[in-house]
Amino acid sequence: MASAKTKSTIQDVAQLAGVSKMTVSRVLNNDAKVSDKTREKVQKAAASLNYLPNISARRLASSKSYFIGLLYENPSEGYVSQFLLSALKSCRQRGYHLVVDECQGSEQEKLQITRDLVEQTRVDGVILLPPFCNNLQVLALLDELKVPYVRVSPDANLEVSPFVCMDDYQAAFDMTNHLIDQGHQQIGFIVGHQNLGASRLRYQGFLDAMRSAQLAVPPSFIEQGQFSFKSGLQAAENMLKQDLRPTAIFASNDDMAAAVVSVANSLSLPVPEKLSVVGFDDTPLATTIWPHLTTIRQPITEMAEQAIDLLTSGQLTLPPSQRLSDLRHVIEFQLMQRDSVKHL
User: Fold this and answer.
1) Domain count for the chain
2) Could you say which residues form the signal peptide (predicted)?
3) Do residues 269 and 174 both lie within one domain?
4) Are residues 174 and 291 in the same domain?
5) In terms of Cα–Cα distance, which of 294, 288, 242, 284 is closest to 263?
6) How far are the Cα atoms of 149, 199, 276, 340 from residue 229, in angstroms, in the given order?
7) Mean pLDDT score across all residues of the chain
8) Parallel, antiparallel or unpaired: strands 125-128 and 163-165
9) Using one digit for the tens of pLDDT, what is the confidence trace for 277-310?
10) Which is nearest to 226 in space by CA: 174, 262, 266, 190?
């Protein structure tokens, strides 16, 4: 075994795993012909040795770059950060590097950023976060450049590409019912960014759950947010400084929910004694603030891992007619019950 001071080699990994160097290479290249048992042995050996493949050598030995691109324009910093960290870890485990770029500006600028990412780094595939994943011009450009891509939580044109997502509508429906089950009838809602399909789905899930329970939603109980903490502050102030106040507020993400808690405390409305608050995503912020947020655990880590797996496993090299039905993944969510909700 290589010493702690010596950089591990592929031969060290092969020796520890009891396989040939060729087998190690196949595992690192996600060769489907390798058995699960052998793959696990090699991965454990590589991890224990802190083995990092030589990207330059691998690029010379194949047509791959071992780079995966990630493009985003998502306003939710917590969501982007968690997805990015999970994607980085997943890439590292597979011997790939992640290249990240933010797409802001005009439509032409976004297209240029996309083209530059592909042509300058020769990425083997691209991950598109919402709402960028719904940009048809970007999708057409990637098709033209013949680069495989996976969309995360698209809300339109689902038939055109592989994607990973969760059921935002059902999650919001279930969370609203959870508040109703706790005795709340006057429930406010902070809508997410208007350009994101997830915002519309979450809002519709909330409305349908309230209607199913035959509960009214006054217009003053609905506020538009932008998925940012700042927008949550303004929305919470608008909702809580009026005479008729909700007993619970459902914010479309954790950043805005944390803002609601802050405003409530400043108005001497402690959470959850005087106001119940719930969020969405289960980012680290949900358990950083006090009280810890009841929230929907969006499977961000799992979606990142699935997207990386699709791009590195070779599945996307199949003709579209043979692949799409098997490459659309809806991943389960969880309702995380914590300290920010009080039973009335």
Assistant:
1) 3
2) none
3) yes
4) yes
5) 242
6) 31, 16, 18, 17
7) 89
8) unpaired
9) 999 999 999 999 999 999 999 999 999 999 999 9
10) 190
Within a 10 A sphere around the Cβ of 196, how many other Cβ atoms? 24
The mean per-residue pLDDT over the stretch 326-342 comes to 92
Residue 281 is given by DSSP the state: E
173 pLDDT exceeds 80? Answer: yes
3-state secondary structure of 304: helix
Q: Which residue has the higher pLDDT, 195 or 60?
A: 195
Residue 259 in tokens: 């803002």
**CATH classification of the domain holding 280:** 3.40.50.2300
C-alpha to C-alpha distance for 303 and 87, rounded to whole angstroms: 9
Q: In terms of pTM, does the model score above 0.85?
A: no
Please indicate, yes or no, whether residues 180 and 287 belong to a single structural domain of this protein. yes
300 close to 130: Cβ distance less than 8 angstroms: no
What would the pLDDT profile of 263-276 be if each residue is shown by its tens digit?
A: 999 999 999 999 99
